[in-house]
Amino acid sequence: MKPAILVTGAAGFIGAHTARALKLAGEEIVAIDSFSNYYSTELKDLRIANLLTPLGVTVARCDISDSDALKKTLEDKNISSIIHLAAQPGIRLPVERYGQYVSANIDAYLNIFTWGLKNGIDRITYASSSSVYGNYPKAPFSESFADIKPISFYGATKLANESMAPTIIRKSKMKARGLRFFTVYGPWGRPDMAYFRIAANLISGKPFNLFGDGDALRDFSYVDDTVNAVIALHNELESRPAEYHDVVNTGGGIPRTLAEMINIAESQLGLELQSNVSAKHPSDVERTFADATLLNSLIGKHTPTPLESGMAEVIKWAKDPKVSALISNWTETTV
Q: So what's the pLDDT on residue 335?
């Protein structure tokens, strides 16, 4: 059997879709996840049952912030490279819960790199975020910007990851690449995200909590586009020399407003969303807008999935009886 790609965070939204795509491409997969209760574990179980179980992929339970647990889980596995997608997501955890970001985004990150170095892994691709840009005054956001300042603690941990990687892999054979994800959406997504709540609340008739007036710009990235970028960038990294490190935007560079997304979903369902409007959250950035120049130079130019097409897939998924009966409950399990 050929060596496997280790996918961390494989019960998560991007992780499960990535593990599925890799398996469909003929790769061997080792999939692990902590199954944290940040949002519904029922949703995570159903995500696995629908995306991974039919392909014979199982997800081992492992909290990688525990280095001993990580070592034990992987001790008999033949791993060739790592796609590290496990993290504490979201920007709205209160300060008294910031330790969750540190454990999942710093401690676990260091552990997976350390394990990789000790076990001869020469390639690791890891999740960063567009949150590292904060409210940068220029757009589109380029990887070349040197003075970026996150405005959320989550974004700060991701920028820390990017700073840590070159120092960790120094004087080793490992190469690493950080992927700055931009507002990824799609079926089997995360219930703390606006698009998920919009679909859920339209179906349930419950009011949507709208922070601000809906004019915030987001570079919405359909999950299939993001997964294709993850895998292509991981493959491209193989050609790089030891100690190489870079970061790459994975957004398509076509920002839209939240109000536009709401209008699209309303039109597709033939329903009107009821909203409770409150002030913009202090950790919400004004816009995300990817410069896709580097991405296109590395893996070839791609045409992003239009928001209308992507939301049609979300609505189709949300209307499935096995989802629609539960989707409203899932949105109540997050911050």
A: 59
Task: Please pick, among 39, 101, 133, 154, the residue that the annotation labels catalytic.
Answer: 154
pLDDT above 80 (res 311): yes
* C-alpha–C-alpha distance, residues 80 and 36, integer Å: 26
Cα–Cα nearest to 49, from 84, 11, 9: 11
pLDDT for res 258: 96
Measured between alpha carbons, how far is 23 from 19 in angstroms, rounded to an integer? 6
Residue 282: pLDDT over 90: no
Instruction: Kindly give, in sequence order, each residue whose CB lies less than 8 Å from that of residue 144, ignoring residues fewer than 6 positions away.
Output: none
Which pTM value belongs to this model? Answer: 0.97
Looking at the structure of the chain, the number of domains it has is 1
232: which residues sit within 8 A by CB, 6+ positions away? 298, 299, 300
Residue 67: domain span: 4-182+222-252+290-305
Look up 154 and say whether it is catalytic. yes
Contact (CB, 8 A) for 33 and 8: yes
Which token pair is 269? 């369902």
192 within a domain of the structure (yes/no): no
- For residue 334, what are the CA distances in angstroms to 13, 73, 204, 328, 330? 15, 28, 17, 12, 8
Residue 324 covered by a domain = no
Confidence of residue 278 (pLDDT cuts 50, 70, 90): confident
Q: Specify the DSSP class assigned to residue 191.
A: T
Task: Outline where DSSP puts E strands in 9-57.
Answer: 29-33
Rounded to 5 degrees, φ, ψ at 124 are -140, 125
**Backbone φ, ψ for residue 259 (5° rounding):** -60, -40
